[in-house]
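Ticket #4471: complex job returned nothing on first submit. Input attached below:
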Amino acid sequence: MAYSDLERDDPITLRLAFAPKPEGARAVSLAVRTFLAESGVDPRELFSYELCVAEASINAIEYAEGPARGLRPTIEVILTPEKLEIRLIDYTPGFDLPKKIAAPSPLDERGRGLFLIQSVMDEVLYIRGRRENALIMRKFRASGGGGPVFKKDAKDNPLVATPDVEYPLDDTDPFQVHPDVDEQEETAEKDLVRKFCWESLGQLIGAS
Amino acid sequence: MKIETQGTCLSISEIPELTAVNSAQFREKVRTALSDSPSVIEINLSQTRFMDSSGLGALFALYRATTPGNTTVLRLLNPIPEVQQLLELTQMQQLFEIVTR
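Support reply: We reran it on our side without changes. The output follows.
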């Protein structure tokens, strides 16, 4: 495929590194909320996304060990008409994310963060790397100029209004939903590899 | 955050948010106020625009601190819809009386 055949995709994006302390995590969750509000996301959804960023960010700080405790985690937000994707890069030892975390007992003092994230988002992936890890949180949005029709009382997902329409899937959709989890993870891994290659290329060019 | 005692009722209000940043401070202040052994604890959440799992943990700590005698009424007043949904999703509403006035 020639370069001229490629179609430029310009989602609305935000990328922030934050101080590895609770105040930094809070600041970044507020910044993401403001960014999404200014980008036209339904106000009824803002609390839930702010919550996901807050939970993921505080985990990235709390579980970092040794010198990694001083590294600044990074949050990336990609917003298109079809999808909201929030990626959090952390420097913790990482963990194995269960596909579905059961609701914790109300008598548990801790351990609600990932459950809340999975309750809000449509897809949550965790990719462990040698130096860093990526938590990828996706919420699919209805496409179309008129905006989605939202249910007011989504029983299976009470924290966020969910679209009342099917997501159109076709070959031109850059964010096609993959029903197979392995395929989703493979796609996410390819994204990371692609990003790494571009960054390495950029460093090579900069060094030469 | 404002803490007042009226008779045997401990009222906690003016909490803009309850998060990992201020949940420890919330716990400490409330723990100090519990020395008066109130029979009712009312936490006014009407101004609480945001709460995360650390905030939920602080509420649970309050529940745990008052359960041994099991006579203290724990009341959450006027949570915004998002906070109420958060309490329901995590089943924390089982531990508190949630009141809208």
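The two ends of chain B are 20 Å apart (CA to CA). Closing as resolved unless it happens again.
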